[in-house]
Specification:
alpha+beta; two-stranded antiparallel sheet; disordered N terminus; disordered C terminus
């Protein structure tokens, strides 16, 4: 057996898949680079600014950042706080939208359209926007959420 075949067997490499071994060494040389938190944060801010759905309002103490969800039916729902797209949840699907606290936001820097914001819960909205919702609004959302997440005919299944 040649050494190439031996190494393929040793590392589990075949034509369809390839495995890589990682060797962690404590050795550092002059080429080792360390990234400080400030430069990492500025790189993330530059990346976020390239996103057309990312909006920033205010300065330092009054700064509010959020991600706008699409209004186009069938596009993924996007979390207003994290910017994460929920690819299995679609705009315009009543059941999917009921699993999020949906807000229409008229910001000072918004265009003529209102921004659509999707939050995981009313509490996430309150923390992000530094506001307080009335209890009735939270209870109504919770009822809608439970209805949207309860499987159809689940009560019939347990009645037997």
């Amino acid at each position: 057996m040649n050494s190439d075949n031996e190494s393929q067997q040793l590392y589990g490499v075949n034509d369809d898949e390839q495995y890589y071994m990682y060797h962690e060494s404590g050795d550092m040389d002059d080429s080792t680079e360390f990234t400080d938190v400030t430069s990492r944060r500025s790189k993330l801010e530059k990346y976020a600014n390239l996103d057309p759905g990312h909006k920033v309002i205010g300065k330092k103490n009054t700064r509010l950042e959020y991600y706008v969800g699409s209004q186009v039916i069938g596009t993924p729902i996007r979390n207003a706080l994290t910017g994460i797209y929920e690819y299995n949840m679609k705009v315009g699907n009543r059941n999917d939208e009921a699993q999020y606290f949906k807000v229409r936001y008229a910001a000072a820097n918004s265009t003529n359209n209102l921004d659509t914001l999707y939050y995981d819960s009313p509490e996430q909205f309150e923390r992000h926007m530094h506001s307080k919702l009335n209890q009735h609004t939270k209870e109504k959302w919770n009822r809608d959420y439970i209805t949207a997440t309860t499987p159809i005919h689940s009560t019939e299944k347990y009645a037997e």
